[in-house]
């Protein structure tokens, strides 16, 4: 067994959390009436998430997971069960190539440039316009390690208080949410230097650094905004953005998105990831305004231009008409008369009888935390395919390593015939999630 685990995904077993939709951070269970909900559940709308804690992963592994509808909050990695959740969350991305400076965006940059007294420039590209902001003697963007500082925390506290009405911010909460990350990348002085001189380099051959970074916006030596970014091989992912409420008038959120698109372009990266998109969440509409935005299709992992996705007026679901499986609930539950569900039920019975793998039906999932995952979840490997693989006598997770935290010992997962039901379920669920090549802490 190799002693070098730096490139290994080190995680806890995945779990399934079912909570009332009042816990949903997007709708807070406040959608007006049941027809506004787009989950399959008719009456009880829930907040359903698959999550796990990650101790270590490479930025490349996270990139793959991001393009599989995962997001992270600190070291907590999660994806929503889009079939049962009150809100449907799909990864949204755009590219700097498709981004056009609209009148509104131009106005935003101009207004801020005027405020910080940046020298005026005309008729140029959006990244040049953003670069020009740093020609103000009073304003600068400064990259730092994603470390805690009192200054950052005070900004966070003011932002949460004023913008999110959240008055319980703590230093440890800030650190867990916006500083902690599973990448453990070291940022060298030379990398930091290159990052901080990005505007002088019109096109890097390769991004100067991959990993989590804080970008601080300073005006007259005061921290007025902070962007938390994951710089990944396929693009820049915006983790969070906070700003001083006193500067609300300057639309710093908009400015930061244009700025991050400029960075994506200068770093020679393809995509700018804006987190999740929820079509019926007003707060998310702005995300569709930056160039040609695309949504991740959970099943095929292809991206579909937002413009090609159409709304179904009757039940407010949106579907892609050319046979995509984006937001699949109507296909699962209506169009195919439940064939997919019936197939999964049949496979679940055999999996339990022959292999001791428990995949309970939906009504077995009460509110709380579960070791099992539901039978049908968009984006996970189907139970039918899992069963067929076992019937072909393929090994379930041949590269899975188990770390026993009680005795500090590592061992290779022995396969479905030699391990107990509990560990087999962990291996099974990790495989469904595409995470079987990992070290799992048991
Ligand atoms: Zn919701």
Describe the structure.
The chain is an alpha+beta fold and 442 residues long. It has a domain at 94-278 and 283-289: 3-Layer(aba) Sandwich (Aminopeptidase). The protein is 27% helix and 23% strand. It has eleven helices and 19 strands. Strands 1, 2, 3, 4, 5, 16, 17, 18 and 19 form a nine-stranded mixed β-sheet that branches. It has an eight-stranded mixed β-sheet with strand order 7-8-9-10-11-6-12-13. It has a two-stranded antiparallel sheet with strand order 14-15. Helix 3 (126-132) crosses helix 7 (252-266). The longest helix has 17 residues, at 339-355. It is globular and about 75 Å long. The relative contact order is 0.14. The model is unreliable at 313-317 (pLDDT under 50). InterPro entries: Acyl_CoA_acyltransferase (IPR016181), N-end_Aminoacyl_Trfase (IPR030700), N-end_Aminoacyl_Trfase_C (IPR007472), N-end_Aminoacyl_Trfase_N (IPR007471). One of its GO terms (cellular component) is cytoplasm. Residues 151-297 form the N-end rule aminoacyl transferase C-terminal domain.
Task: Summarize the helices and strands and which ones pair or pack.
Blueprint (H helix, E strand, L loop, with lengths): L8 E3 L3 E6 L25 E11 L2 H8 L4 E3 L2 E5 L9 E5 L8 H13 L10 H7 L6 E6 L5 H14 L7 H9 L9 H8 L14 E9 L2 E11 L2 E9 L8 H15 L4 E7 L16 E3 L6 E3 L3 E3 L6 E3 L8 H7 L3 H17 L12 E3 L12 H9 L9 E4 L4 E4 L8 H12 L5 E4 L1
Parallel strand pairs: 1-19, 10-11, 17-19
Antiparallel strand pairs: 1-3, 2-3, 2-16, 3-5, 4-5, 6-11, 6-12, 7-8, 8-9, 9-10, 12-13, 14-15, 17-18
Helix pairs in contact: 3-7
The chain binds zinc ion.
